[in-house]
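Quick start: read one record
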Amino acid sequence: MAKPPSPALLSYKQLPQYAGFLVQTLFSPILISFAIMGIACLFIGVSVFYNYEIHLNPDVNSLEDALWWGMTTISTVGYGDIVPVTSQGRIAGVLLMLTGLVIFISFSTLLVSVFFA
């Protein structure tokens, strides 16, 4: 991997080289694998939530509602407009929250360590 120019000494002439380094970093195998793991965990959590909540939870009327719940849960935003009412839905929520924390923290840590390397 090429070493980026120092940000303090970055000039307009070095901008294409620095942009190339950023693109190369963002497409590194480990960052892509974290993104794939995050997406896979999201869809698994959404499908478990949807299967257990669709007939019992009045707030879950479609797969779109379950996906909304999954995105707000894995990103730890948690608006609270859709909450699980079954034990299985709550377990899916807890696992999705923990997965979101681990994946986002790991992803951010890797990205920052690459920029400071």
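DSSP finds four helices and no strands in the chain.
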